[in-house]
Amino acid sequence: MALASHFHPLAASRVHPCPVHLHSAAGAPSPSVSLAAHHHRLRRRFSAVVAAAAASPATAEFDFKAYMGERAAAVNRALDAAVPAGDPPAALHDAMRYALLAGGKRVRPALCLAACGVAGGPEAWAMPAAAAVEMVHTMSLVHDDLPCMDDDDLRRGKPTCHVVYGEPIAVLAGDALLSLAFHHMASVGSYPPDVDPHKHPARVVRAIGELARCIGSEGLVAGQVVDLEMTGTSEAVPLERLEYIHLHKTAALLEASVVIGAIIGGGTDEQIERLRKYARSIGLLFQVVDDILDVTKSSEELGKTAGKDLASDKTTYPKLLGLDKSREFAGKLLSDATEQLAGFDKEKAAPLLHLAYYIAHRQN
Amino acid sequence: MALASHFHPLAASRVHPCPVHLHSAAGAPSPSVSLAAHHHRLRRRFSAVVAAAAASPATAEFDFKAYMGERAAAVNRALDAAVPAGDPPAALHDAMRYALLAGGKRVRPALCLAACGVAGGPEAWAMPAAAAVEMVHTMSLVHDDLPCMDDDDLRRGKPTCHVVYGEPIAVLAGDALLSLAFHHMASVGSYPPDVDPHKHPARVVRAIGELARCIGSEGLVAGQVVDLEMTGTSEAVPLERLEYIHLHKTAALLEASVVIGAIIGGGTDEQIERLRKYARSIGLLFQVVDDILDVTKSSEELGKTAGKDLASDKTTYPKLLGLDKSREFAGKLLSDATEQLAGFDKEKAAPLLHLAYYIAHRQN
Hints:
Helices cover 63% and strands 1% of the residues of chain A.
């Protein structure tokens, strides 16, 4: 069953999703299944699915935890420097910093840096781009949380931006973060002293184009619009529409993060397209896992309101397919992603390989 | 009296306004002056001020009306093509088009194109940038009009975006327009067939940096934040703070429009900085004239709610200085702007010269 092939009218949009297949999804929807009862059994089964897809990676010695820790620290330093504390207008900068430096796993920046590395560039070249994708991600969270949108009070275990700073400042902080992302990528001052962005301005222009495309009416915003249209409706949301939302709302920015890194790193067009496919698979994987975590974890473990999707009648993969099939789908996406890395240098591809496993296995 | 020199704390921000002088403003504030009674007399006087500054331009034969009409038509075509009608998500694209194609004088795009021309490039090079500045301008209008901001129901004589499409779509349409601006500037497809943007990618990167800077916490957004802080307070707003708001909320994007055009056109650093000074003067001029029109024109003539600034207790130049001194200030800004054009080829500088006069003399 090709999920993205015979799509609803939205398929006419200019997003061309990489076809992903869910072989066993047909006729699967079983929202009545007792999720709590299946929890432990499914968790074991999911581990089995993922273990099969893993096929003993040859990079067992790669220290993923150290890699992620160092990247997150470097990205946090870049973000901290990009929005000066205390500068006027103070309320605006405070709100930007509050949203931007609230922690988070920095998965998108790590993908950007790792893709730069696998494409041949030193990772440092992509640091401004990595900071930029996190700014865009933060902007989308701040705007999506607004009272007129998803009306969320809690994010990463803390009150959301508009709760602390008020709605007008939250809207404006989002706008400022969005423009700062592009300013950051285009400014000489964002790059490390030993990196000359003017050496490859064509790469920067192309990367900026990719970043811009994944935000607007072909990306994050389109996903949010369709998501809002679906919320609170009593009619059943078809799987195709759910996938449209996730491909736009989540996968588009993950894809851009990887592709931008690859462009800045100097990858060939063929390499960039392979990494794009990798990114699309992990993009959808990210959301499927998110949906699974929402029904299997407590609010405390997630740092946000758990079960919210279920409570608010939001369509999710577990609700449409059942937890079982959702986990199988996740395993398939993981193996699709890792396949794309086969042609790259094993050592250089290790971070992207481990990032895919991390996204599949994360517990919050 | 130097308005921008001994500024309030906000002067510590990274915006460095070009100093403009208002020689006769000291002790002028006379909010109690009967505005209606002075209307006709002041209108005549303003014409006199502007005539003095004009000093008979040598480009009398330049057909400004035809120039503006052709530029506006070309920009409208570019904007129309940039947001496809009917493409899904339809509500989003409809809202973007509604806001973007609502008419308007296209002053910013015209400044961008004219600056490209005076800096040496064919104007066509700057068409994507010209469309981009209008997208950014439209985004700022859509977000500023939101119920949680200025809560405006009428814009250019039509209901505002959120009135027609709802608040969530208005927020998202603004976000999409903002990202589209950068996408448009970075995409090969935006440029005319005979223009190769890859020939000068370094110019495109620099121009994108300028555009991004003028939006966020150093530009439009900063101005709106301080403007919101001032609205509804009973304390008197000092002239310095009023100028901060206008330099950020209005002048920053006018400055970027001119500077981006000059960069794309291949101007030297010295030319770009002279054009930046020109732009800063007309930027403030634009807002002073806006304030004057608000108290001297009817809603019908303006296409928006007239007298709103006065009614909402918003600080304006006429309220702080009186209409008289506001008009004098406008005349001084006009002559400051035109002085910067002296070193350029007269024929090529004609559009920018006439644009300055147009901004000073416009009636809506």
